[in-house]
Amino acid sequence: MNHVPAALLKKTRLVVIGNGMAGMRTVEEILARAPDKYDITVFGAEPRVNYNRIMLSPLLSGEKKFDDIVINTMSWYQENNIHLLSDDPVVEIDRDRKIVISKSGSKTAYDQLLLATGSDPIMIPVPGHKLPGVVTFRDVDDVDVMLKAAQKGGPAVVIGGGLLGLEAASGLQARGMSVTVLHLANHVMERQLDPSAGYLLAQELGRRGIDVITEANTAEIIGTDSVTGVRLKNGHMIPADLVVMAVGIRPNGRLAADAGIAVERGIVVDDVMTTSDPDIFAVGECVQHRGQCYGLVAPLFEMAKSCADHLTEIETGGYAGSVTSTKLKVTGVDVFSAGDFSGGGETEEIVFRDAGRGVYKRIVLEDGRIKGAVLYGDTSDGAWYFQLMKDGQDVTDLRDTLAFGQAFAGGATANPFDAVAALPDDAEICGCNGICKGTIVSAITEKGLTSLEEVKGHTKASASCGSCSGLVENLLAATLGGDYEAAAIKPVCPCTDHDHDSVRRLIIAKTLKSMPAVMQELEWKSSDGCHICRPALNYYLLAAWPGEYVDHAASRFINERVHANIQKDGTYSVVPRMWGGLTNPRELRAIADVADKFDIPTVKVTGGQRIDLLGVKKEDLPAVWADLNAAGMVSGHAYGKSLRTVKSCVGQEWCRFGTQMSMGMAVELEQMTWGSWMPHKFKMAVSGCPRNCAEATIKDFGVVATDGGWDLHVGGNGGIHVRATELLCKVTTGDEVKEYCGAFIQLYREEARYLERTAPWIERVGLKHVQERVVDDTQNRVALFARFLESQKTAQIDPWAERASQGVDSHEFKSLSLIAAE
Amino acid sequence: MSDIVTWVNVGPLSNIPQQGARTFQTETDRIAIFRTLDDQIYALLDRCPHKDGPLAQGIVHGRFVTCPLHNMVFSLETGEAQGTDDGCAARVDVRVVNDTVHIGLNAQQTGLRHAG
What we know:
The complex is a heterodimer.
Chain A: E1 12-17, H1 21-33, E2 38-44, E3 50-51, H2 56-61, H3 66-69, E4 70-72, H4 74-79, E5 83-86, E6 90-94, E7 99-102, E8 107-109, E9 112-115, E10 119-121, E11 134-136, H5 140-151, E12 155-159, H6 163-174, E13 178-182, H7 195-207, E14 211-213, E15 218-223, E16 227-232, E17 237-239, E18 242-245, E19 249-251, H8 254-258, E20 267-269, E21 280-282, E22 287-289, H9 297-311, E23 325-327, E24 335-339, E25 348-354, E26 359-366, E27 369-376, H10 382-391, H11 416-421, E28 428-430, E29 435-436, H12 437-447, H13 452-459, H14 469-480, H15 500-509, H16 515-521, H17 533-544, H18 558-562, E30 565-566, E31 572-574, H19 585-597, E32 602-605, E33 611-616, H20 621-630, E34 643-648, H21 651-654, H22 662-673, E35 682-687, E36 701-705, E37 710-714, E38 726-731, H23 734-751, H24 758-765, H25 767-776, H26 778-795, H27 799-805, H28 816-821
Parallel strand pairs in A: 1-2, 1-9, 2-5, 9-21, 11-18, 12-13, 12-18, 13-14, 20-22, 34-35, 35-36
Antiparallel strand pairs in A: 3-4, 6-7, 7-8, 10-19, 15-16, 16-17, 23-24, 24-27, 25-26, 26-27, 28-29, 30-31, 31-33, 32-33, 36-37, 37-38
Helix pairs in contact in A: 1-9, 7-16, 12-14, 15-17, 20-27, 22-23, 23-25, 23-26, 25-26
Chain B: E1 6-12, E2 20-25, E3 30-35, E4 41-45, E5 59-61, E6 64-66, E7 73-75, E8 94-97, E9 100-105, H1 107-110
Antiparallel strand pairs in B: 1-9, 2-3, 3-4, 5-6, 6-7, 8-9
């Protein structure tokens, strides 16, 4: 059977397999160039005319109807004499006879064949993936299933937090379903967005009531007759009446491959879209061009042009591949990315953050040219950056104001003083207290204010969250001119303008609970911090949100990452905990056995009354710990910014001068405080009489027994600047010692700066400050102590046991060469 | 490393933690292979030019690593020490093919690549 009327046989017969966007755009381009050259037949798998697939999201959300997204109506096919055979997919290409065979058995001859078979959505073959209620998000039929489910409301799960998955989630949510997105990577849209923009997007989706679970590994889709839920590999269950699988697409090259045409990931084409058969062409998502497959619409259109040029014998340079940009089609969420924003090579990056407006921009430059960009919150300049990038324009002269967009590109100055000077008097400077520029300026001039502190005192501007303090300082400088010298704020590191204290305060004030949240909201100037700020932030977050914040291993110094002390030759030292400095024959035997078994070269007694095993190879650490664990010993945290040791003398237990049980008290204090992370290392000691054999008066917290009770000393240390303790107070009972100790530690944990020991901290704030909070104010002491005990609930887990027997962080202890050798 | 003789497959990208590193022992050197937050891969000899510190154990930030022994910061791209410090950590060629990491080794290094 042949569908081509005899009268038209003199024309070249072009058969198009695929009635999608790529195929029809190519046909349109051919008709525009040579309307009478071809006799065209189109095979479509779907029972409808050609529509705009990228508009499925608005179709789902209800912002568009099917008629709105139709590209070519039936009359267009008729007017152009195109034979449309929809709902009858081609099942075979016979290249020898140059015919295609459809599902219904019809045979159609071709002179030239165009493959536009598109792509298939990937269905992860987890158990249950064939249940009714599991759909992909690829065509109008999928949308129909989703809309039907949405009518009943109820819970939906979208597997895949990429572009398509988030659009599906947003559409279903708009239709009244409660949606959970499961995403395998650690932030959404990881192919298009960097972690900072991913964080902002997840925040916004959360505000809209869409739950995003990252690092979610689907184990099974549950249900008997239809879907009822999804089970994750970690055992977590999420109920669902509808599951949308949106994990990606795969180029559809089956027909071509069956016909013996070269197919790798996609159908392999050259620059004029010719396949390995010179009479067969391919365009769109089914092709692989110069090793690249595309899933976006712009490249399809460029391919269509090149293919049409070639089929109508117009000489051009051909298709050279596409630089792509993406925009998320979710109303009210502005996300844009283009090009290669991964950085690397000789690139440099410009990062702009405006926490107040939720704006993040990152522009990657190479050789003075834009190589890629990620924009969140304000994408109005996306097109401009994209154009500059495609044109390869040198932006060196624009560099200083590039982040502010095209409006600033005219050479306007970016001087911050000029910027605040240009603000109107009623411009709000301090959002917390509603203070306008005019109020601040008149306070400065009328009252003769010269410092940020004075402005805070007189106007309350920047007295709350402090995030406008930079603006206020600029106002001071603009108003006073040369008379103003900014107070020396010592930023944490070059990644930020904030000092330690404001970072700590803002983490609490703005309930910032993750590293990306802090970096975005506090306008960090680098994308992922540095070795100075990251460990500090990790500690501040841990201290602020105990039990909630997940420790970020990559932001810890190596010693705290592998729970041992690195030595000059790259080996490690291991110090097991000996409570209060006490040990026994069983522990000593285990230590001796470990030293023999692992050829540990040096065994040394430390200043903190512990035994140090030095020269342990990194890969031996878990096995060493396993043996020590077996003898009942746990990590001594000799490596951490944490509670180190509690030394003791033999006390009233043995000593003829002893007045209290110092060993018992030391053991109790150590059992209460071990595992606690601190701004710096923290050492304690308990002496059983005023002779103070345990040297408690050069410790962070020292306890010295007296006849009637205990003297509590704080703020001592050895080291370069030896500092003896100051007396905090005297108490009578053991329970009081523990309460004051816990409260003091908690105050230090909450107030000191990272890497500040108690000695410089107390010198900075004064002993009186500490006494007021820990001694004089009973209620505050009790509250501090309660917070300390609360944080200890999740801190007292032996890190050695986790690594020796539970496989935690196993990548730390095994080199790639060892894996390769297995 | 100009005289590459062999590209050695050192396993999937996913074996290396983000903002972290792992090592590969060759006949002559230990190689540190780094993965940045945005999944760029770099390799340096695992030996700080200052005092031989194991760079793979350092904190990875942006395109830099900080040596764990004395906090010298090196560019992962060029190996150059940053700031006022002098020195250069030796770069090793590395490439990622289908999510698998390959490092380029010279004849001496490949002599017995699984040693250690």
